[in-house]
Amino acid sequence: MSAAAIGDPTFTAGFRLIGVEGIVAVDEDEALNALKRLLEEPKYKLLILPERFVKATRELRSRLMKEGKVTPIFAFIPDYTGVKGLRVEELKRSISLAVGAELRF
């Protein structure tokens, strides 16, 4: 399975060490543009991004889901910026919509 990490040089460096392709993007616009370029070629099945890009990529990810695409898988992980919890909130909101009741935990 091919994987790519999109983020700043510090974020991508660790992934490059384990053989994952690293694409440098230091802000939300660069990350979104890099993501769009990667989606044009169906080479990557896993895309790893810092959690701070959850909001910036939400619309694009939603469009892919509506189109019925199951790949690539998006993995958001916390980075050194300290932004965390955004992906969990997004999942909680999606599950709440699916079951018709607000989840609290």
How would you describe this structure to a colleague?
Helices cover about 45% and strands about 20% of the residues. By secondary structure, it is an alpha/beta fold. It has a single domain (about 5-100), classed as ATPase, V1 complex, subunit F (Rossmann fold, 3-Layer(aba) Sandwich). A 4-stranded parallel sheet has the order 2-1-3-4, with helices on both faces. Helix 1 links the parallel strand 1 and strand 2. The relative contact order is 0.17. The mean pLDDT is about 85.
Summarize the structure.
The chain has 105 residues and is α/β, with parallel strands linked by helices. It is built from 4 helices and 4 strands, in the order βαβαβαβα.
Present the secondary structure layout.
Layout: E1 3-7, H1 9-17, E2 21-24, H2 28-40, E3 46-50, H3 54-66, E4 73-77, H4 86-99
Parallel strand pairs: 1-2, 1-3, 3-4
**What can be said about the biggest beta sheet?**
4 strands, parallel
Whole-number count of domains: 1
Kindly report the name of the CATH homologous superfamily: ATPase, V1 complex, subunit F
Q: How many H/I helices?
A: 4
CATH fold naming: Rossmann fold
Low-confidence stretches are none
How far apart the termini lie comes to 34 Å
The average pLDDT value, as a whole number, equals 84
Radius of gyration: 14 Å
* Coarse morphology: globular
**Series of H and E elements:** EHEHEHEH
* Estimated helix fraction: 40-55%
Strand content: 15-25%
The strand count comes to: 4
CATH class: Alpha Beta
In order across it, which strands form the biggest sheet?
A: 2-1-3-4
Structural class: alpha/beta
Which second-level CATH architecture applies? Answer: 3-Layer(aba) Sandwich
